[in-house]
C-alpha cells in the first residue's frame, strides 16, 4: 500500500484531498440548495456536578461555567434547535463521572452516546474498557491530552498500550489537542491504523489571531489518514468571544471541508463552554449557515451521519 509523507495509507475513500484555493472556492460558491435541515446529533456536549468537579480553571472569564450543568438544562435548547440527540464527552479525569452520566442516559434517552475517561496507563486498562463496553451508550474514550505537562504524552509507551486496547476493541479515541500537539495526530493514526481518532475542535486553531499557517499543514496531514475524523466544534471560543462573525469561522470550516470532506466531519456545540461566546441557538444556526451550500447528503453527514457511524450510535 502506498503511503504519504505522514506515513498514513493512501486511499480515495472518504478522504478530502488538499487542492488549494480552487477547491475551497467550490465550497463557498456552490449554488444555494433548499433550506438545510436541522442537525440531528450534537457530537460534543458536557455535563458536570460542580461539587464533584475540579473547577480550578473556572476563574476570571471562565467563571460563568462554575455551576451545575445537567441534561435538563440542555434538553429544551436541543429541541428549540431541532436537534434530536447528543453525545456526552468527558470533562475531567474521574471514573465516577462515567458512572453518573451512563446512569443519566436511562432517564434521558436523547443522550445517544458517552465518551468516557479511562486511564490509558493503568495496568488493568483492558478490564476497564470491557466493563464500560457492557453499557450500550458507551461509545468512546477521551483524555484531556492538551493539559498534560508533557507535550509528547500521547507518544509514551504506557499510553500506547492503552490505545492498543481501544484499537483491539473498536473503541474510538477523541484527540483533544492544541495546535502544538497536532502533528502527533498523523503519527498516532499511522501507529494504530484500525483505531478511529476523533479530532476535537479542529485542534483549536487560533481563530482570534487569524492563525492559519501554524495549524493548516498538520491539520491536512491528519486528514490524509483515513482513520481520523474531525469535529466542527469549539470554534466560537477560539475566536473573539464578543465580536466573532460567521465569516471568520468560514475560513476554518472551508479548510476542514477541503481536507476531510463532509463524511469525516461532525457537528458539535461544545455546550456549555460555547456559552462564553454564544448561546446554543447561535452556535447551531451558524453551523447551518456555514454548511448551507453543501448537498443534502453532505449536510446530513455533518449533522449526524458521521457521528452515528464513527461512534456506532444505536438508532
Descriptive overview:
- Residues 1-7 and 9-23 have low confidence and may be disordered.
- The longest helix has 15 residues, at 246-260.
- This protein has an 8-stranded parallel beta sheet with strand order 1-2-3-4-5-6-7-8.
- The chain is built from 10 helices and 8 strands.
- Helix content is 36%, strand content 11%.
- The radius of gyration is 18 Å and the shape is globular.
- The chain has a single domain (39-310), classed as TIM Barrel (Alpha-Beta Barrel), CATH 3.20.20.
- With 315 residues, it is an alpha/beta fold.
Give average pLDDT, whole number. Answer: 91
SSE sequence, one letter per element = HEHEHEHEHEHEHEHEHH
Number of domains: 1
Beta-strand segment tally = 8
CATH superfamily: Metal-dependent hydrolases
- Global shape: globular
- Spans with pLDDT under 50 lasting ≥5 residues? 1-7, 9-23
Strand content: 5-15%
Give the SSE layout.
Blueprint: H1 20-29, E1 41-45, H2 71-80, E2 85-89, H3 95-107, E3 111-116, H4 125-133, E4 138-143, H5 157-168, E5 173-175, H6 183-191, E6 197-199, H7 216-223, E7 228-232, H8 246-260, E8 265-267, H9 280-290, H10 296-310
Parallel strand pairs: 1-2, 2-3, 3-4, 4-5, 5-6, 6-7, 7-8
Helix pairs in contact: 1-8, 6-7, 7-8
Task: Write out key terms for the chains shown.
single chain, 315 residues, alpha/beta, TIM Barrel, eight-stranded parallel sheet, 10 helices, 36% helix, globular, disordered N terminus
